[in-house]
Specification:
This protein is an alpha/beta fold. The protein folds into two domains: about 230 residues, Rossmann fold (3-Layer(aba) Sandwich), CATH 3.40.50; about 35 residues, no CATH class. It is about 40% helix and about 15% strand. It contains ten helices and seven strands. It has a seven-stranded mixed β-sheet, with helices on both faces. Helix 8 crosses helix 9. The radius of gyration is 20 Å and the shape is globular. About 35% of the residues are buried. About 5% of the residues have low confidence.
Amino acid sequence: MRGILRAASAVLAGAVAAGCSGGGSAVAGRAAPDPRSDLRPFHEQKIVWRACPADEVPDEVAGFLRFECAVVKVPLDYSRPDGKTIDIAVNRLPASDKKQRIGSLLTNPGGPGSPGLGFLYNFAADGFTPQLRARYDIIGMDPRGVGKSREVRCQTQKEQAALQQKVGEDFQAFGKALAAACTKRAGDLLPFVGTDNAARDLDVVRAVLGDNKLNFYGVSYGTLLGQFYAEQFPAKTGRMVLDSVVDPTVWPGDTTVESVAFETSLKVFVQS
């Protein structure tokens, strides 16, 4: 993972070295208003950064990397932005060279369901090069329904073990019971958890950070999120590194393509 992250850092750093015109982020000021005026209050909200809780930051980086945490409000239902809202948890490693800073780099570790805050804590030091950390504020984000962004936890481990014992190998019964538990505990959120809304949340975060375009690093499922964002917001798409790309035409469900990719990679590795 760290080697792959370093390769991604090199790609982004190469883009930095080539110059910022055409695909970069705003260096200062606010991002351009979104054409949807009903989302403007969300895009123009003021983000308040505070030091992240000490017990969340790994000891090995706490001494020399300073992480900050905040929340960004987004609509629960984007078709009704004047309705309920939810908080999206984000953290950042501020650019170490303020004079040379060119914007933000949002990240997603995949899953779906992997928490983005922990990803940044654990991989910022070894995964992203000093050159990249100097020029970008690197941003972690827990997608809605994950981690600190209203985590959907349908059952405790004890409850799930009891259910498994009850239904045995009846996977259909297991799925129905699990879905019922999810609906009971997070029914208002569940219809609005998915890649489409995660991409919309990314765009709100982009605007709140003051970036005219989204610079993004995504892994595995995170590449699907990046592709979806680029499809929804082509004019707002900046630099992207998509690592371990997911084919949106076959995912999820079809593991054949993944198996072929694993086998091909293994053969290349053995032959090298």
